[in-house]
Specification:
The complex is a heterodimer of chains A (312) and B (476). Chain A contains 13 helices and eight strands. Chain A is α/β, with parallel strands linked by helices. Chain A has an eight-stranded parallel barrel, surrounded by eight helices. The radius of gyration of chain A is 19 Å and the shape is globular. The model of chain A has no long low-confidence stretch (mean pLDDT 96). Chain B has 476 residues and is an alpha/beta fold. In chain B, helix 4 runs parallel beside helix 5 and helix 9 packs across helix 10. The chains are: A alpha/beta (312), B alpha/beta (476). The interface between A and B is medium-sized, with 27 and 23 residues.
Chain lengths: 312, 476
Amino acid sequence: MDQSPVDAAAAQASLKRFLSGLPGVDQVGVEARAAALATRSIKTTAKAEALDLAVRMVDLTTLEGQDTPGKVRALCAKAQRPDPSDPSCPHVAAVCVYGDMAAVADEALVGSNVEVAAVATAFPSGRAALEVKLADVRAAVSAGATEIDMVIDRGAFLTGRFLEVHDEIVATKHACGGAHLKVILETGELATYDNVRRASWLAMLAGADFIKTSTGKVSPASTLPVALVMLEAARDFHATTGRPVGVKVAGGIRTAKDAIRYLVLVKETLGDAWLTPALFRFGASTLLNDLLMQRQRLATGRYAGPDYFTLD
Amino acid sequence: MFEYAPAPENPAVVDIKPAYGLFIDGRFVDSQGGTPFKTVNPATEEVLSSVLAASSADVDRAVAAARRAYDTVWSRMPGQERAKYLYRLARLVQERARELAVLETIDNGKPIRESRDVDIPLVAAHFFYYAGWADKLAHAGFGSSPRPLGIAGQVIPWNFPLLMLAWKIAPALACGNTVVLKPAETTPLTALAFADLCQQAELPPGVVNILTGAGPTGSVLVRHPGIDKVAFTGSTEVGRAIAREVAGTRKKLTLELGGKAANVVFDDAPLDQAVEGIVNGIFFNQGHVCCAGSRLLVQESVVEDVLERLKRRLSTLRLGDPMDKNTDIGAINSAEQLARIKALTEVGEQEGASRWTASCPLPARGYWFPPTLFTGVSQAHRIAREEIFGPVLSVLTFRTPAEAVEKANNTPYGLSAGVWTEKGSRILWMADRLRAGVVWANTFNRFDPSSPFGGYKESGFGREGGRHGLEAYLDV
């Protein structure tokens, strides 16, 4: 951090050179590839496996101004036993809340294997002073968050101040201590696939444990082609450095069909090693119920009505 | 983990008859002296049906029917009326798309994903496109009232059976010609299904005639004195023979022949999409594509990176049952073609190129060849010069754009080429210099009915598709 201005300029220049030197992304090509993979037909045993896997990868999320301790506790109960009628149903990966609810979630999840994820760093816009953002992170971690979902400074990224974005992620990672860091790129604001690839690399170079598409507060949120570009970046980063980085897709993923399409992307881009909650997550609120409904349909051959699944 | 379960398309959506007649003058009829032969499913070697090898008497009958329909109905019909029939055919193709896709896959061996998502939609698109031209020929740039040629004798290959039929029949009919078409001997079934579609559309008898058969039937057809126009898609060798037959007659001729296309990847290419384009260029339809990107030219500075990405990608290709919706690579169309691919790849090894094959188990029955690439290939190797027409890629390298052009053009063929770079000016520079009928930029094997397609040099002459495609069927 204690760099001379000359060193900082040199570091900024070399980072910029590196990111600009990454192979470009052809929009038509990447969209065609994502569309082709979306035609994979996942049936019977593969579907059953995919649905369970998807449940285990869900970060069950509530990020509303109207969140209350009661709401968060209800979500935590659901996270541990998503389908009370079926003990074979796995629990989700994490509950994702605002930092001030981390303590509530932590208490409600004691004794379970469900992680507490908190959004921080002036989520969702990221428009605050660095010290404020870091204090946000430290507060969430000390309240019990084991995973931190941060947002990058898109303004700095879009004006080319890559080193600033990089250093902010490094500082946040430091503030996380032992907590896992997910870096939200907010791809809907980055606009181009080239930017998505550069931001992915930037976050991974800065020490991200996960790169995440969106806050869910900006449209478009996660799309298949965006996820594909990020998965390819994670694949290339792993090939270069040997460090596996996870990918989280969030925003607008509401159906089991959507979720399975993402799993197909993961399988055919990064391979089976990434088909684990440790390396792939869905950030979602309504997705879980559709997964449960499809799960039950596969087991019983019938669709139960929506009233048979809990609304939390 | 999460292995895809079988997801087979239902073969019961097609009704394959044990035997078929010839489609002459709007009816299915018996052959006069022609012998029956079998068509098989290349993925299982099961016999699908028995079809007839049309005799020269059958060709006489078909040409006479086409002449009658031309003189009395089709050439006199206003363009807007012809258009109605073509639109009707296009809609019928769409309505029966699933059946046609399944039939194509069963008879040809290509994956259902491709026949469903590529072949059949393009067939419908082609008929729609040329239906639109039928009443606008005066505005096509070929004079104020261009006349049709008469009877078109058309011979098509087995790699895209119904699509090649559409490429031939749609413009011919739009321009007011009538046709006698011979599908390839290994893939006659969708052409016969198309005959059924013509009946359903109540197309006037004799406008479309379908004669099944092998080389001898095709030879009789193109030599027939009642034919005004010959259109052929297939090998350069047969194309040459046809050109000799037709020489000295008044017949008009278009040929769409072989290719050995270069797919040129520069170091500033979008690499992941380039890899997809390479895969789509040579492993689409098991490489049974005349415009396949069978020669990969990679700039030396990125060759290792590209090869690593390519090999990783190839190992995810799913080879197997063409009827499975998740299959990427289907069966080789015939034992004969499989033997040719094997022979040429053995030559490749003998000549010193190194072979890499994706590890995928091959089914016990049927004709199969795994995706294969050769590195260390030079321009002098036979696998860099001859059309293999299979899932085999030859990888060569270059250092400068000029060298890329030189190598890409250094082939007797000239059907297509691909250029991969993020630099727009370089795309234009390359397209200017590549001697190929189609140059794709940052994509490959992309087809559209409004875009003309055809070859330079030994890849043939004449254009199919687009406004240019009308010229081949008009007296201009």
